[in-house]
Amino acid sequence: MSGELSPIDKAKFVAAKRAADFVEDGMRVGLGTGSTAAWLVRCLGEMVREEGLKFRGVPTSTRTAELAREVGIEVVSLDEAKWLDITIDGADEFDANLNLIKGGGGALLQEKIVATASDQMVVIADAGKEVETLGAFPLPVEVIPFGWQTTQALIEETLVSMDVLGRSATLRMNGDAPFVTDEGNYILDLHLNRIGNARQLALVLNQMPGVVENGLFIDICDIVVVGYGDGRVELR
Ligand code: 5RP
Questions:
Q1: How many angstroms separate the alpha carbon of residue 8 from the centre of ligand 1?
Q2: Is 90 annotated in some ligand binding site?
Q3: Which of 93, 111, 142, 213 is catalytic?
Q4: What pTM did the predictor assign?
Q5: N or C: where does the chain have the smaller number of CB atoms within 10 Å of the terminal CB?
Q6: Residue 4 CB: number of other CB atoms within 10 A?
Q7: Which of 33, 99, 113, 180 to mutate to test the pocket of ligand 1 (most atoms within 8 A of CB)?
Q8: Is position 104 annotated in a ligand binding site?
Q9: Which sites are catalytic (predicted)?
Q10: Is 57 annotated in some ligand binding site?
């Protein structure tokens, strides 16, 4: 399955393959979104088809649901599963405390709901995602389309009052139109450079009218499986 891969894809693949070993028969498993999570879904599909692994998967996006079905994973909704044994997902950044920025793929809302409803969240990432301080990756914030420019202005004003370094919030686009999430919302990407107090920012953002959820995952992740281009894997 891994064939001839570029170092970055190899890093994602080996992290995903190692994390697939966490999945056991009978588990209810949250399936993340993104290119690294897609490797995981393919690995798990292979284990279902070739080793007879039996588990139920709860996808965090329509993309992941399609891929999971395609590779032979039994897909159920979160409400059917009720609670999950484990969620395995990618991330855009992680720090030494295993706090994350997620949402580069626009699926942060379902990802946060699913991860929070799990006994354990395992993140799979290539080594380039490890940072000292979160924030170089633009922080995705999911907002209601109604009045999104007012929400954008409110976020920018709040960032100024919090003395956060970078202050621009840009609407994520998909060609000429706004990018629309699975829930029909928009994404504002906050260009912050460095997030000094991620916990406080996450709380403040979620209190604003119009904001649905933000991409800071604080105290949610339990383990990060880090993959390297030479095939090494480390657990944090
Ligand atoms: C999607 C996500 C992804 O997990 C994150 O963007 C990482 O993606 P990739 O594995 O493609 O680098 O949060 O909303």
A1: 14
A2: yes
A3: 111
A4: 0.96
A5: N
A6: 6
A7: 33
A8: yes
A9: 111
A10: no
**Complex-level ipTM:** 0.99
Q: Which residues line ligand 1 (CB under 6 A)?
A: 32-37, 89-92, 102-108, 111
Query: Can 50 be counted among the known catalytic residues?
Result: no
Ligand 1 atom at minimum distance from 108 CA:
14
